């Protein structure tokens, strides 16, 4: 039998259907004379394999051990190798992404099969692109009209690195609640960088409700990655940014009555004013971003301002009620990110993202960096800042 499925776990799996689809896949790629083993395990067992052979002491969805090439090819020439799939992780991720369980399981099996054949997505953009193309082609042929949802997910999950910038505003919120000198957002920033953060974000509001001028000045001296200053496009803030010179300025809307930023900057109809602010900041060498709603017209307007980056407001996605609304907002973000990239922007995203909702949006290939604060600071209360950042980075990297 070309496909051997060895079930070593207790969950219900459509083994007969899965075997038929994988044998069909071998036929499509003209390898009917080859064999492959697919071993279905739980999280505990795949963690053992990861720890023993790959130095990864945690569960993953799929791992492959190829005999199609290398020193073992002569031992059993017809055997491609072994694909190990954690059904626990597969079903958990399928639920998280809103995908049919058996289709997601087939997707992981095809991914593992292509690894057996020597395809690799971690060796550079060309190899990743080629592997993705083959995955989508096979899934479309195997599932027909039912393939759309899973292939859309695959396109979003294109392999490219994503960065994490950590906002430490709410460390200052705790400090300002008692008007004392602790906890210090500067200390939190150092720990966030030790946890792997690619940047530190602070929002200096006109009312100074959390971050203070002193914080920004000290962070400018201490931050080793990059310092991102969020601010309103006022004369006072532009003058402050020109003096302190953070690595990046993100222009945001601001209302004193709001608890947190409520939406993106409205650029359409205010292009000249925004462009003047951008020019004043870029005059002293600052990189400029605009925090913007995922609306194509706003993005096209932003393209006329000279800004380098757009940060897509993810608040509507984060607040979506139910999977259908979440899928709609996710599609809006993906389309906005695609348009922004085509217009030459570097694309970032943030607002309301947390450990339970980051994975689907982190799979959008056009987004290069995520700005996350409240969730990480809240988690840090329980486990520490360094650990909270590491956990978020793991989820972002896993989504790609």
From TrEMBL:
Origin species: Thermodesulfatator indicus (strain DSM 15286 / JCM 11887 / CIR29812)
Functional pathway: Cofactor biosynthesis; pyridoxine 5'-phosphate biosynthesis; pyridoxine 5'-phosphate from D-erythrose 4-phosphate: step 5/5
Keyword Nuclease: yes
Name of protein: Multifunctional fusion protein
Subcellular location(s) of the protein: Cytoplasm
Family designation: Belongs to the PNP synthase family. Belongs to the endoribonuclease YbeY family.
Keywords: Cytoplasm, Endonuclease, Hydrolase, Metal-binding, Nuclease, Pyridoxine biosynthesis, Ribosome biogenesis, rRNA processing, Transferase, Zinc
Enzyme nomenclature, EC number: 2.6.99.2, 3.1.-.-
Active site annotation, chain numbering: 203 (proton acceptor), 230 (proton acceptor), 351 (proton donor)
One GO MF term attached to the UniProt entry: metalloendopeptidase activity
Residues annotated for 3-amino-2-oxopropyl phosphate binding in this entry: 167, 178, 352, 373-374
Reactions catalysed according to its record: 3-amino-2-oxopropyl phosphate + 1-deoxy-D-xylulose 5-phosphate = pyridoxine 5'-phosphate + phosphate + 2 H2O + H(+)
Ligand binding (1-deoxy-D-xylulose 5-phosphate): 169-170, 205, 210, 260
GO cellular component, one term: cytosol
Gene (UniProt): ybeY
Residues engaged in binding Zn(2+): 111, 115, 121
Pfam families given in the database record: PdxJ (PF03740), YbeY (PF02130)
Described purpose of this protein according to its UniProt entry: Single strand-specific metallo-endoribonuclease involved in late-stage 70S ribosome quality control and in maturation of the 3' terminus of the 16S rRNA.
InterPro entries per record: Aldolase_TIM, MetalPrtase_cat_dom_sf_prd, PyrdxlP_synth_PdxJ, Pyridoxine-5'_phos_synth, YbeY, YbeY_CS
Residues annotated as site: Transition state stabilizer: 311
Principal localisation: cytoplasm
């Amino acid at each position: 039998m070309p496909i051997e499925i060895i079930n070593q776990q207790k969950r219900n799996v459509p083994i007969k259907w899965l075997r038929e689809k994988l044998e069909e896949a071998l036929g499509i790629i003209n390898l009917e004379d080859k064999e492959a083993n697919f071993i279905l395990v739980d999280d505990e067992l795949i963690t053992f394999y990861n720890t023993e052979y790959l130095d990864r002491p945690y569960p993953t969805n799929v791992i492959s051990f190829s005999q199609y090439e290398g020193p073992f090819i002569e031992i059993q020439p017809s055997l491609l190798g072994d694909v190990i799939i954690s059904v626990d992780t597969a079903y958990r991720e399928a639920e998280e992404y809103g995908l049919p369980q058996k289709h997601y399981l087939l997707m992981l099996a095809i991914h593992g099969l292509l690894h057996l054949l020597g395809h690799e997505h971690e060796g550079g953009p060309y190899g990743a692109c080629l592997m993705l193309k083959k995955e989508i082609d096979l899934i479309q042929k195997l599932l027909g009209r039912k393939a759309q949802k899973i292939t859309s997910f695959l396109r979003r999950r294109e392999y490219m690195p994503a960065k994490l910038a950590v906002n430490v505003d709410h460390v200052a919120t705790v400090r300002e609640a008692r008007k004392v000198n602790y906890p210090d957002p500067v200390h939190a920033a150092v720990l966030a960088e030790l946890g792997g953060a690619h940047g530190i974000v602070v929002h200096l509001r006109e009312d100074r409700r959390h971050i203070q001028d002193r914080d920004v000045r000290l962070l400018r001296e201490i931050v080793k990655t990059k310092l991102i200053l969020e601010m309103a496009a006022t004369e006072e803030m532009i003058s402050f940014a020109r003096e302190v010179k953070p690595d990046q300025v993100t222009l945001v809307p601001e209302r004193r009555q709001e608890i947190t930023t409520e939406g993106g900057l409205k650029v359409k109809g205010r292009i000249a004013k925004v462009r003047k602010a951008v020019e004043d900041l870029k005059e002293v060498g600052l990189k400029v971003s605009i925090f913007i709603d995922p609306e194509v017209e706003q993005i096209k307007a932003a393209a006329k301002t000279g800004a380098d980056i757009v940060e897509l407001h993810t608040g509507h996605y984060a607040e979506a009620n139910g999977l259908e609304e979440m899928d709609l907002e996710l599609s809006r973000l993906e389309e906005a990110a695609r348009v922004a990239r085509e217009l030459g922007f570097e694309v970032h995203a943030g607002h309301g993202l947390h450990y339970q909702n980051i994975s689907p949006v982190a799979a959008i290939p056009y987004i290069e960096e995520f700005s996350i604060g409240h969730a990480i600071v809240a988690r840090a209360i329980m486990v520490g800042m360094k650990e909270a950042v590491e956990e978020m980075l793991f989820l972002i990297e896993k989504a790609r």
